[in-house]
Design goal:
- This protein has helices spanning 23-34, 70-80, 114-123, 144-148, 154-177, 179-186, and strands spanning 2-8, 41-43, 46-53, 56-63, 88-94, 102-105, 130-134.
- With 203 residues, it is of the alpha/beta class.
- It has one domain (2-192): Peptidyl-tRNA hydrolase (Rossmann fold), CATH 3.40.50.
- It has a seven-stranded mixed β-sheet with strand order 2-3-4-1-5-7-6.
- Helix 2 runs parallel beside helix 3.
- The protein is globular.
Length: 203
């Protein structure tokens, strides 16, 4: 059976739940809901749920290591599940993308993201998929930490909520059809943020 593992980066704890830095957590939670997965349960370095769907074993992870040690969780479960690096994807926040945008890539550098940098360090490579979720960069100079650890405004939250179905569509396309088709689904311009009318049939 094929395997797919989804690592939504973020920080554990109620105080971080709705912060910009936790959009990876929130996308994975939404994917679990869409797949009607069992509840998340605590395991080493993570909270995890898993299920079989469309001939694939799906593993959904929320690392509990805190953002800057995300690589401990990803590396441990990559080894434990004997995952090929193409079988896992990291979902994270991205200040270089506007809110409402996302970008799927098959590899790349950390781009200043400490969580992704630690994943790269622990895996010892950059050639694994990642889905970057835009959070914008509307903060004064020197205030990036405060910005990413603060929640969206109500208007921003509405934009983020409108992105969630597209992110789920993107991740499911990646899991079932591969990264090339998924990049066509994910990497759309800001002008095409309306719901996708030609989504693949995942039933």
């Amino acid at each position: 059976m094929k395997k797919r593992a989804f690592f939504g980066l973020g920080n554990p704890g109620r105080e971080y739940a709705l912060t910009r830095h936790n959009v990876g957590y929130r996308i994975v939670e939404a994917l679990a809901l869409a797949l009607e997965a069992p509840p998340f349960r605590s395991h080493r370095y993570v909270e995890m749920t898993e299920l079989d769907f469309r001939g694939i074993r799906w593993y959904l992870f929320r690392p509990t290591t805190y953002m800057n040690r995300s690589g401990d969780a990803v590396a441990y479960w990559q080894a434990k599940l004997a995952l090929d690096y193409s079988e896992l994807i990291v979902i994270l926040d991205e200040i270089q993308l506007p809110l409402g945008r996302m970008r799927l890539t098959p590899q790349g550098a950390a781009g200043g993201h400490n969580g992704l940098a630690h994943v790269i360090e622990r895996l010892g490579r950059i050639d694994f998929p990642r889905l970057r979720i835009g959070i914008g960069r509307h903060f004064p100079r020197g205030k990036q930490v405060e910005y990413v650890l603060s929640p969206f405004s109500p208007n921003e939250e509405a934009v983020f909520q409108s992105l969630i179905p597209r992110a789920i569509d993107c991740l499911m396309t990646w899991a079932i059809h591969g990264i090339d088709q998924a990049m066509n689904t994910c990497n759309q311009r800001l002008s095409t943020l309306s719901p996708i009318s030609s989504s693949p049939d995942f039933a």
